[in-house]
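Need a sequence for this fold. Nothing fancy.
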């Protein structure tokens, strides 16, 4: 790597730091445990047998410790739209489980009614009428176990998108900033496919599997089109990395707006599947729980990561990818079919991002256009910390970023979480510019 190339590389990374700092507040944060309590409160406010369909769950802008939960009910009396605002004692720590206020359809719930609901509605929902946890653990240990279980999906999502960055950067030394939106596209395609399956009466494991495959395949195809139609023509004309960076950022904005404008014309939520909690560990006071949907999402991401590592390490495609990453000209001379390798890499990178998107939908029920840029930045940070261009480095970086998010969100003010993560990125770039595995350093490209 020449001095000019190293300077260009550092300029690009410096620009990325500035971009991340400017976009720190773009994504919204919904605490999964608070979301579960808010949903349980909505169920407790209605008669048994009432069908509840969730339409939106988001933080309240004027109160960081509150959630707005919009839903529709259907019963023998008819159907209606409702809105519930759940106010919690704090955003972090054990106090975030303390529901201190409810506003149902614009009317605050009185203290007595709130106490009754918490005592006989939420407690019964949480305890599941006598079910005991699988393991006995103190409240503090159970609390941290809960955070770790919640972070499994996050780690897998960041890892898959970071691996997408690594696959493309390994071949071309360029960054595609559209991968977060490709992940959103995978989630949207899955929701559309599942809605079609539901219209055909196939809301079953086969329908869910078909929707999963449709989401991943759609994202892979979108990534292939972006690679062939945008990245390759730019790479043929420009030696600087900036044109690809700007073009893919523009594509990300286009996809975000496209998904936002079309969101009102389609169903945005996966029906409640596999959401009955499993009581993992704890005792009176706090019990760590996990849902089968969260386990399924974590299993999908971890399986995808394992398959990707095996593919890169032990298959002909992986050997060709490593050869081209090390020396493109020599790889072509020894028989590597470069066009086929490039096309397969674009599709594989998109498939990884698409798997991250469908895992988000399985775990949380939906995915929104605003999630794309946030996932892009966190995954890019993971890839840079691990050593951008290295698939194992991307996964190591994802574990670090997800771990920092979980620990900080659990123990400190969540508002400063992204500041800490971006500061970590700046520190890595200053102290170890090539990342933990030195993948971006001035040395031969290695797996």
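Here you go.
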């Amino acid at each position: 790597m020449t001095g000019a190339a190293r300077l260009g590389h550092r300029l690009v990374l410096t620009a990325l730091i500035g971009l991340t700092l400017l976009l720190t507040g773009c994504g919204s944060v919904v605490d999964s445990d608070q979301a579960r309590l808010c949903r349980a409160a909505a169920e407790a406010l209605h008669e048994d047998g009432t069908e509840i369909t969730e339409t939106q769950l988001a933080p309240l802008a004027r109160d960081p410790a509150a959630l707005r939960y919009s839903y529709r009910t259907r019963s023998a009396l008819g159907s209606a739209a409702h809105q519930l605002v759940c106010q919690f004692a704090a955003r972090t720590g054990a106090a975030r489980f303390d529901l201190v206020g409810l506003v149902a359809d614009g009317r605050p719930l009185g203290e007595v009614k709130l106490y009754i609901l918490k005592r006989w509605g939420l407690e019964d929902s949480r305890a599941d009428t006598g079910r005991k946890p699988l393991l006995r653990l103190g409240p503090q240990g159970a609390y941290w176990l809960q955070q770790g279980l919640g972070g499994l999906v996050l780690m897998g999502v960041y890892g898959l998108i970071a691996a997408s960055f690594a696959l493309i950067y390994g071949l071309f030394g360029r960054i595609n900033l559209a991968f977060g939106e490709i992940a959103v596209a995978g989630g949207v395609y899955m929701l559309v496919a599942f809605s079609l399956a539901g219209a055909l009466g196939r809301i079953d494991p086969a329908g869910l599997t078909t929707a999963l495959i449709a989401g991943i395949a759609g994202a892979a195809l979108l990534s292939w089109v972006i690679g062939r139609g945008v990245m390759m023509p730019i790479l043929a004309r420009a030696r600087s990395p900036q044109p690809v960076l700007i073009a893919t950022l523009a594509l990300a904005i286009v996809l975000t707006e496209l998904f936002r404008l079309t969101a009102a014309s389609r169903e945005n939520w996966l029906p409640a599947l596999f959401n009955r909690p499993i009581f993992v560990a704890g005792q009176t006071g706090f019990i760590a729980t996990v849902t089968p949907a969260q386990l399924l999402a974590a299993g999908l991401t971890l399986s995808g990561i394992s398959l990707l590592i095996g593919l890169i390490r032990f298959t002909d495609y992986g050997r060709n990818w490593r050869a081209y990453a090390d020396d493109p000209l020599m790889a072509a001379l020894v028989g590597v079919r470069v066009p086929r390798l490039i096309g397969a890499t674009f599709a594989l990178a998109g498939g990884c991002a698409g798997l991250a998107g469908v895992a988000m939908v399985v775990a949380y029920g939906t995915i929104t256009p605003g999630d794309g840029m946030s996932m892009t930045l966190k995954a890019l940070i993971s890839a840079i910390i691990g050593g951008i261009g290295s698939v194992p480095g991307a996964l190591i970086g994802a574990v670090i970023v997800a771990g920092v998010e979980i620990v900080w969100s659990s123990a400190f003010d969540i508002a400063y979480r992204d500041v800490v993560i971006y500061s970590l990125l700046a520190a890595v770039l200053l102290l170890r510019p090539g990342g933990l595995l030195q993948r971006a350093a001035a040395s031969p490209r290695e797996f």
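For context: Strands lie at 51-60, 63-75, 78-88, 99-104, 107-108, 135-136, 278-283, 286-290.
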